[in-house]
Design goal:
The protein has about 110 residues and is α+β, with helices and mostly antiparallel strands. It contains 3 helices and 6 strands, in the order H-E-E-H-H-E-E-E-E. A hairpin with a 5-residue loop joins strand 4 and strand 5.
């Protein structure tokens, strides 16, 4: 259920990317909340998760297009990146990537 909610949130963000934004310490923050970012950084520092930059590079080399947004959550009880990606044909896909292995474990849309 969390996975479907996360995917719905990402897709809704693609429809109206600048409609709203949160404030974090006086700076606008788009996409994932500060807690998600800190959790991901700690996972990478400790060696439990692959860096998001490596995931984005892998998705880009396989699919072309561009990165739109990323959220961190869990998929099947494992930490996961939910990467919103716009393909070269303009369609939007959400890739579900296992944060520990860096492997794509799901795809929605496109």
């Amino acid at each position: 259920m969390k996975r479907l909610f996360a995917i719905a949130v990402l897709l809704a963000g693609a429809a109206a990317p600048a409609a709203t934004h949160a404030q974090d310490m006086g700076r606008p923050v788009f996409g994932a909340g500060r807690g998600d970012q800190e959790q991901a950084r700690e996972g990478v520092r400790s060696g439990r998760q692959v860096p998001l930059s490596r995931v984005l590079s892998m998705i880009g080399s396989r699919n072309g297009g561009r990165h739109l947004n990323t959220m961190q959550g869990d998929a099947g009880g494992r930490p996961a990146y939910f990467v919103q990606w716009q393909l070269e044909n303009g369609r939007v896909v959400v890739f579900v990537v296992d944060a520990e292995s860096g492997q794509i474990i799901g795809r929605q849309g496109g």
